[in-house]
């Protein structure tokens, strides 16, 4: 039941706030503490709603920490990736040697069939390494997604009831599904692609300097603009991704709420109105996706133009060096292939950075749930709701009436009961939380929730007039159970 103490009538009327009552219970030792938590009015939900996480310096490190249980498979994947990258770096060099053998004819140091057979064996080994890398990387991502979903769901279920009043179901479901899937994809395909692009870029740059340093300087002139564009593009995409995920969760919330109350919608024939409301949310997602698509198209178009212009410059200058006898045809071919590798690698790194920013935007929402500590702790998880006498905070009983109580509550507890929180741990968003079978002394206009079985003083408490003031019954909730129940158990 919920009571509010009213002051003596002095010509002013008081409006009663709407309060939602949700019963729950917790087992502590042999006794059962039955209590109810009263959340604030809906107007106060925004104050308790989790705010979007701001970018932090350790976000990438926190995201990569999900690899810890996958150390051995990750080592296998990275090893296979290294083998594959080294073999890939041999392709331009081998092609150049084939061209030199064909050009030299009988004067070549190695016959053409031998060169082709040797290159074929190397490429077969590279294909096997790729199979191992892709399979291992995909399974790492799937296992990370699976664990992340389980941990996120468990963290959600551990939260207090006030958290669910402040958070919509659709938003929580979106984090469980879309956000965790995106994180797993980033940590599997995207990270593997980023490592491969990094290895190819370093290997290609090394080989072009070995082949011809003069042409290398011409080719690398395009790198600084691409790098600056990648950083700016990644930051912009990160912001848009966070907004897209938020708008998508809101659209899911609208659909979930209306589908869960379809009878009410049908009674009032509001189907067209709800369709328009959902269309508005979906259109907002589409508008943000359009901005992200335009930014992606502009960036990759610029990267493609820069790479092609760099290749054209290398081809013109290198052709002149071949005509002057300073470079062989095979070396020029190898250099051009390495130049293409560098361009593709930087494009891959740019895409990796953009996808990584998407993953960070999604992970910040998921880690917010994983790291959130419930304001009402569950005893089944080795936490105690009731402070013991060995703790530094004094127990609030009838013997220690002078000790402060949580904000907004003034109560006298029987000597057999204690307060649930010290003042520093008093949960926000709750009007009060009191134990059963207690004698209460309320402030003027204060609220009281009491949960008790039949015959334990409900009527007497309603009829009492502390200090000549009136106790007014705001709401009453009956809960019938065959036996006691415990938070986290059914």
Report on the structure:
- With 490 residues, the chain is mainly alpha-helical.
- It has two domains: 2-8 and 22-37 and 377-475, no CATH class; 65-370, ABC transporter type 1, transmembrane domain (ABC transporter transmembrane region fold, Up-down Bundle).
- 60% of the residues lie in helices and 7% in strands.
- It has twelve helices and seven strands.
- It has helices at residues 45-48, 59-64, 71-104, 112-158, 161-166, 169-211, 213-219, 223-260, 262-267, 271-323, 329-370, 458-463, and strands at 2-6, 20-28, 31-39, 411-412, 439-440, 447-449, 470-475.
- The strands form three sheets. Strands 6-1-7 form a three-stranded antiparallel beta sheet. The chain has a two-stranded antiparallel sheet with strand order 2-3. A two-stranded antiparallel ribbon has the order 4-5.
- A hairpin with a 2-residue loop joins strand 2 and strand 3.
- Helix 3 (71-104) packs parallel to helix 6.
- The longest helix has 53 residues, at 271-323.
- It is elongated, with a radius of gyration of 34 Å.
- The two termini are 23 Å apart.
- 30% of the residues are buried.
> What integer value in Å does the Rg equal?
34 Å
The largest sheet, given as strand count, sense and whether it forms a barrel, is: 3 strands, antiparallel
**How many β-strands, per DSSP?**
7
Number of helix segments? 12
GO molecular function: ABC-type oligopeptide transporter activity; ATP binding
Domain ABC transmembrane type-1: 75-358
GO biological process, one term: oligopeptide export from mitochondrion
Subcellular location: Membrane
């Amino acid at each position: 039941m919920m009571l509010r103490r009213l002051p003596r009538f002095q010509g002013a009327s008081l409006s009663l706030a709407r309060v939602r009552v949700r019963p729950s219970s917790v087992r502590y030792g042999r006794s059962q503490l039955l209590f109810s938590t009263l959340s604030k009015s809906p107007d106060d939900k925004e104050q308790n709603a989790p705010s979007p996480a701001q970018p932090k310096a350790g976000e990438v490190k926190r995201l990569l920490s999900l690899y810890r249980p996958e150390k051995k498979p990750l080592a296998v994947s990275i090893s296979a990736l290294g083998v594959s990258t080294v073999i890939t770096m041999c392709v331009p060099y081998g092609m150049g040697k084939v061209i030199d053998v064909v050009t030299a004819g009988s004067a070549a140091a190695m016959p053409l069939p031998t060169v082709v057979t040797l290159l074929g064996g190397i490429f077969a080994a590279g294909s096997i390494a790729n199979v191992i890398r892709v399979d291992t990387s995909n399974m790492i991502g799937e296992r990370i997604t699976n664990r992340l979903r389980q941990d996120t769901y468990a963290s959600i279920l551990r939260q207090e009831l006030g958290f669910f009043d402040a958070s919509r179901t659709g938003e929580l479901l979106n984090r469980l599904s879309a956000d965790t899937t995106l994180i797993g994809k980033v940590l599997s395909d995207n990270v593997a692609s980023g490592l491969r692009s990094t290895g190819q870029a370093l290997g290609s740059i090394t080989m072009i300097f070995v082949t011809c340093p003069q042409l290398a300087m011409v080719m690398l002139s395009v790198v600084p603009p691409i790098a600056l564009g990648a950083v700016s593009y990644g930051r912009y995409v990160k912001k848009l991704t966070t907004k897209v995920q938020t708008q998508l969760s809101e659209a899911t919330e609208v659909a979930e709420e209306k589908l869960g109350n379809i009878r009410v919608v049908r009674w009032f024939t509001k189907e067209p109105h709800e369709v328009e409301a959902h269309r508005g949310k979906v259109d907002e997602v589409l508008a943000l996706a359009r901005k992200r698509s335009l930014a992606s198209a502009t960036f990759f178009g610029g990267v493609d133009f820069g790479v092609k212009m760099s290749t054209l410059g290398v081809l013109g200058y290198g052709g002149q060096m071949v005509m002057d006898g300073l470079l062989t045809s095979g070396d020029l071919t190898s250099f051009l292939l390495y130049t293409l590798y560098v361009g593709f690698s930087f494009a891959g790194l740019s895409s990796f950075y953009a996808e990584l920013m998407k993953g960070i935007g999604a992970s910040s929402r998921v880690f917010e749930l994983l790291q959130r500590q419930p304001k009402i702790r569950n005893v089944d998880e080795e936490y105690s709701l009731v402070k013991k006498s060995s703790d530094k905070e004094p127990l609030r009983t009838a013997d220690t009436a002078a000790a402060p109580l949580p904000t907004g509550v003034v109560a006298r507890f029987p000597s057999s009961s204690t307060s649930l929180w010290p003042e520093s741990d008093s949960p926000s968003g709750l009007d009060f939380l009191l134990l059963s079978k207690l004698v209460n002394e309320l402030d003027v206009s204060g609220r009281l929730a009491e949960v008790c079985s039949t015959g334990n003083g409900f009527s007497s408490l309603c009829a009492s007039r502390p200090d000549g003031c009136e106790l007014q019954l705001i709401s009453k909730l009956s809960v019938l159970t065959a036996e006691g129940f415990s938070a986290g158990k059914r």
